[in-house]
């Protein structure tokens, strides 16, 4: 994959990346591509946000409950079919576009910012 255009640190600093814990996950059969609906708690300040993720190559809804994930929490909400996505979880994509989620090595407080 080619390198994306250079951005300033100020541009990067606008992205609010936080750690949250998946509290609920269920299949999303209405999505055009296979996906899972997630409800993620980001602590007292942010509360619970929802997202839809195309992560079915490596994950099932049951496997995601209780897992900590990293997400962008300051994107505009996006309507995905009948579901409103409020954040974007972060993962690494392999050559076949299968996503492996990124997560902290140790449990941290929900809502912790990524530095």
Top-tier CATH class: Mainly Beta
Separation of termini?
25 Å
Count of helix runs = 3
Q: How many strands? A: 9
Number of domains: 1
The average pLDDT is: 96
Relevant CATH superfamily: Nucleic acid-binding proteins
Helix amount: 10-25%
Segments where pLDDT lies below 50 for 5+ residues?
A: none
Shape: globular
* Helix-strand string: HEEHEHEEEEEE
CATH topology: OB fold (Dihydrolipoamide Acetyltransferase, E2P)
Per CATH, the architecture is Beta Barrel
Task: Give a structural overview.
The chain contains 3 helices and 9 strands; from the N terminus they run αββαβαββββββ. By secondary structure, it is mainly beta. The chain has a single domain, classed as OB fold (Dihydrolipoamide Acetyltransferase, E2P) (Beta Barrel). A 5-stranded antiparallel β-sheet has the order 3-2-1-4-7. A hairpin with a 2-residue loop joins β5 and β6. The longest helix is centred in the first third of the chain and has 5 residues. It is globular, with a radius of gyration of 14 Å. The chain starts with 8 loop residues before the first helix and ends in a 14-residue tail after the last strand. The mean pLDDT is 96.
Short description:
This protein is mainly beta and 115 residues long. The protein has a single domain, classed as OB fold (Dihydrolipoamide Acetyltransferase, E2P) (Beta Barrel), CATH 2.40.50.140.
């Amino acid at each position: 994959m080619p390198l994306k255009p250079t951005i300033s640190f100020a541009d990067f600093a606008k992205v609010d990346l936080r750690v949250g814990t998946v509290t609920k996950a269920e299949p999303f059969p209405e999505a055009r591509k296979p996906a899972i609906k997630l409800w993620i708690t980001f602590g007292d300040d942010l509360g619970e946000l929802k997202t839809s993720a195309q992560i079915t190559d490596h994950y099932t809804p049951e496997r995601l409950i209780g897992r900590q994930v990293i997400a962008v929490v300051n994107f505009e909400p996006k309507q995905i079919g009948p579901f409103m996505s409020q954040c974007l979880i972060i993962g690494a994509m392999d050559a076949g576009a299968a996503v492996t989620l990124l997560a902290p090595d140790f449990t941290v407080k929900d809502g912790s910012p990524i530095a």
